[in-house]
Write a structure and sequence with these properties.
By secondary structure, this protein is of the alpha/beta class. The protein is 39% helix and 16% strand. Strands 4-10-9-8-7-5-6 form a 7-stranded mixed beta sheet, sandwiched between helices. A 4-stranded antiparallel beta sheet has the order 13-14-17-16, with helices on one face. The structure holds pyridoxal-5'-phosphate (PLP).
Length: 413
C-alpha cells in the first residue's frame, strides 16, 4: 500500500481551510485535485519552452512537440493502447463521444438501426445517441439496472439484435458507482456485429485499464478526473475504426497537402486535431499518468475499495440515509450517492460546506437515472480518490449528523 500522508502532501489544495475547517474534498467524480507534479509541469512549459507544436524548427518548438507527443505515448501506455497513434487529444469525454457520434456513427447508423445504452448513462453518453437516433430514424434501446443497481446483463443481451450498430455504455456510473463488466458486454455486442464505445470517464482514473483486453472500438475519458488539468481528454480508437472515421474539424495541422481546390488528410491521429492543440494541458496529463503509474492503479483501486467499504459501514449508522449503488464492492467504485429522508440534498450540501466538507448534490448529469429510476429529484454524492482518508469519511458522517440536528431531524446534543 502506498504512503497516504506522502500522497496527500503532493496536493497543495488539501492543506487549505474552508469556512475555518480543514477541507474534506469528496467531489472527485466531478473533478479531481491536482498534485504539485502536474502543476509544475504546466509552469515548466510556460516558463521554459512555451511554443507551438509540429510547426517550428526552432528549439522551443521542438521541445514542446517532443513533450506533447511524449505525453500521448505515456497515456497510450497507461491504458495499454497498441500505440500512441490510437489516441486523439480532445477536450474531455463529452467531446470524445460527440466526435464518434458526428463522424463514425453518423455515417453508419441509419433508419431501423439500433443503438444500445444503459439506464445509468451520463448525459454525455446519452444525449449524443438520442439525437443521432432521432436524426437518422434509428432506435435507442436502454438496458435496465437490476434491483441491486448492477447492470442487468440479461436485459443488455436481449437488446442486442442483429440491427444493433453500436453499444455505448459506461464503465463506471458517476451516480451509483456501478462498475459494468465492460469486457463481457463488449464481447456480447461484437457477437451481433455491433461496435462498442465505452464511457471510461470514471474508470480510467480509478481502475487499472487495458483497452486491448477490453476490445472496444472506442474508449473516452477526461484528464481532469485523473489528476490532469481541465480542457484535455482522450478518445482511444481501434486502428480500423480510426481509419474509417472522417475528420470532423477542418483547418491547420489536420491536412497533408492543400491546393485551392482540395486537401488530403494528415496521418493518424493528427487528422482529428485541427488547429493549435491544448499543448500545456496535454503535457500536464502526461505528468498525471506518470503520477498514477508510479502509485500503481491496483493500489489506487485497493485504497478506494477499502475506503468505500468503511464509508458504507458508517452510513449504516444514519437511519435517515437511503444509500444507492451495488453492495458488491467488486462492482462498485468509490462513489456513495444518498438521500436523507426529509432533507433536500442542496440544503445538505450547503450545511456540509460550512463544515469544510465538499460533496456534490443534484442530478449529476444523469437526470433520467435519478428522476425516473431512483425516483428522487436529486441525490447527495460523496466520491473518493487516492488521497482521501477514513478520517475524512468520519468528518462527512459527523457533518451529516450536524445537518440532521440543524434541520431538526435528530435530537440536538
Ligand atoms: N461520463 C461520465 C460517467 C462522467 O462521470 C462524466 C463527468 O462527470 C462524463 C461522462 C463527462 O465528462 P466531461 O464533463 O469531462 O466531458
Amino acid at each position: 500500500m502506498y504512503d497516504l500522508s506522502a500522497v496527500r502532501a503532493d496536493f497543495p489544495v488539501l492543506s487549505r481551510q474552508v469556512n475555518g475547517k480543514p477541507l474534506v474534498y469528496l467531489d472527485n467524480a466531478a473533478t479531481s485535485q491536482k498534485p504539485r507534479q502536474v502543476i509544475e509541469a504546466l509552469v515548466d512549459y510556460y516558463e521554459r519552452y512555451n511554443s507551438n507544436v509540429h510547426r517550428g524548427v526552432h528549439t522551443l518548438s521542438v521541445e514542446a512537440t517532443d513533450r506533447y507527443e511524449e505525453a500521448r505515448e505515456k497515456v497510450a501506455r497507461f491504458i495499454n493502447a497498441p500505440s500512441a497513434e490510437h489516441l486523439v487529444w480532445v477536450r474531455n469525454t463529452t467531446e470524445a463521444i460527440n466526435l464518434v457520434a458526428k463522424t463514425w456513427a453518423a455515417e453508419r447508423v441509419g433508419p431501423g438501426d439500433r443503438i444500445v445504452v444503459t439506464e445509468m448513462e451520463h448525459h454525455s453518453n446519452l444525449v449524443p445517441w438520442q439525437q443521432l437516433a432521432k436524426e437518422r430514424g434509428a432506435e435507442l434501446a436502454i438496458a435496465a439496472l437490476g434491483a441491486d443497481h448492477k447492470l442487468d446483463e440479461a436485459d443488455f443481451e436481449r437488446l442486442l439484435t442483429p440491427n444493433t450498430r453500436l453499444a455505448a455504455f459506461t464503465h463506471m456510473s458517476n451516480v451509483l458507482g456501478t462498475i459494468t463488466p465492460a469486457k463481457r458486454l463488449a464481447e456480447s455486442a461484437r457477437r451481433v456485429g455491433a461496435a462498442v464505445l465505452i464511457d471510461a470517464a470514471q474508470s480510467v482514473p480509478h481502475l487499472p485499464i487495458d483497452v486491448q483486453d477490453l476490445d472496444a472500438d472506442f474508449v473516452a475519458f477526461s484528464g481532469h478526473k485523473m489528476l490532469a488539468p481541465t480542457g484535455i481528454g482522450c478518445l482511444y480508437a481501434r486502428g480500423e475504426a480510426l481509419e474509417q472515421m472522417q475528420p470532423f474539424l477542418h483547418g491547420g495541422e489536420m491536412v497533408l497537402e492543400v491546393t485551392y481546390e482540395d486537401a488530403s488528410w494528415n496521418y493518424l491521429p493528427m487528422r482529428f486535431e485541427a488547429g493549435t492543440p491544448n499543448i500545456a494541458d496535454a503535457i500536464g496529463m502526461g505528468a498525471a499518468v506518470d503520477y498514477l503509474a508510479a502509485l500503481g492503479m491496483e493500489n489506487v483501486r485497493r485504497h478506494e475499495v477499502e475506503l468505500t467499504r468503511y464509508a458504507l459501514r458508517r452510513f449504516e449508522e444514519l437511519e435517515e440515509a437511503v444509500v444507492y449503488g451495488p453492495a458488491d464492492l467488486d462492482y462498485r467504485g468509490g462513489v456513495v450517492s444518498f438521500h436523507m429522508e426529509g432533507l433536500h440534498p442542496h440544503d445538505l450540501g450547503q450545511v456540509l460546506d460550512t463544515e469544510g466538507v465538499a460533496i456534490r448534490t443534484g442530478h449529476h448529469c444523469a437526470m433520467p437515472l435519478v428522476r425516473s429510476r431512483l425516483n428522487v429529484p436529486a441525490t447527495a454524492r460523496a466520491s473518493f480518490y487516492l488521497y482521501n482518508t477514513e478520517e475524512e469519511v468520519d468528518a462527512l458522517i459527523e457533518a451529516l449528523n450536524k445537518a440532521l440536528r440543524y434541520f431538526g431531524r435528530a435530537p440536538r446534543s
